[in-house]
């Protein structure tokens, strides 16, 4: 497994495990199996959040890791409900309360990567970053990060850090896949490139649409997530997307690869990407995701893929 960097964290596996299924889709026993498979496959980066499974994701992850905690990097997030019920996720009081809750659920003394789950435009960035710097000095978090930030929000927070002598966010986690490529054109990846910020894609497989299991004109497999979701899945799958996936599948297979390998390797072959967060509910999915990222795509191949997607 290749390892990359997020700030001071230099052993970040290029494929990470997204833990949003823990406590939401699978129970503690199934979580144990998935975590065991991830560690066996070489995954070191585990991404959860206080909001996943109403806290059970953190609980299940901490229990599943057990004595192996120091062998991995535990990332969690706080402040998902920013903007709702007047909660300001960037408020120092909110940060400290949220972190203590996460540490208790995880059964840990520190978090390796602590990320603001949504921007808080009501709290001065310097206040948020100042509190995070204090928590780093206290040894409760090792590194910081943010998610769902625009290029402008990344720029303003970086300026606040610079003006106040504080550490800036060394990573940003946003939605990015073959079918969701806004970060390529909205300035986020360009900001990362210019400022040495690691990018962490989530939903790389678009809830399974990019695994190759869905075909136009065919019923959705009964054991699939998009089958279980029923009408809700219509927001993720339609004829245009299936047509794009069909073109990509044909292109990948002509090169001796699967759709899954294309989806994972397109992201992993981008040097700006620190780790690709992929969820799993079964051990075999973990192993497949890790194996799929072994295709070292050239920039010429990546350009051909973009041309296929754009039609």
- Poorly predicted sequence stretches spanning 5 or more consecutive residues: none
Strand percentage: 15-25%
Tally of individual helices: 11
N-to-C SSE series?
EEEHEHEHEHEHEHEHHHEHH
Q: Which structural class best describes the helix and strand composition?
A: alpha/beta
CATH architectural label: Alpha-Beta Barrel
Tally of domains:
1
- Oligomerization status of the protein chains: single chain
- The CATH topology annotation reads as TIM Barrel
Termini separation: 34 Å
| CATH uppermost class | Alpha Beta
Helix content: 25-40%
Q: Gyration radius, to the nearest Å? A: 19 Å
Categorize the overall geometry: globular
Largest sheet: 8 strands, parallel
Trace the largest sheet across and list its strands.
Answer: 9-8-7-6-5-4-3-10
Mean of pLDDT: 92
Number of strands: 10
**Fourth-tier CATH superfamily name:** NADP-dependent oxidoreductase domain
What keywords describe this structure?
311 residues, alpha/beta, TIM Barrel, 8-stranded parallel sheet, two-stranded antiparallel sheet, 11 helices, 10 strands, globular
Explained architecture:
The chain has 311 residues and is of the alpha/beta class. It has a single domain (3-209, 260-297), classed as TIM Barrel (Alpha-Beta Barrel). It contains eleven helices and ten strands. It has an eight-stranded parallel beta sheet with strand order 9-8-7-6-5-4-3-10. Helix 4 (125-137) links the parallel strand 6 and strand 7 (141-147). Helix 1 packs parallel to helix 10. The longest helix has 16 residues, at 239-254. The protein is globular and about 55 Å long. The two termini are 34 Å apart. The mean pLDDT is 92.
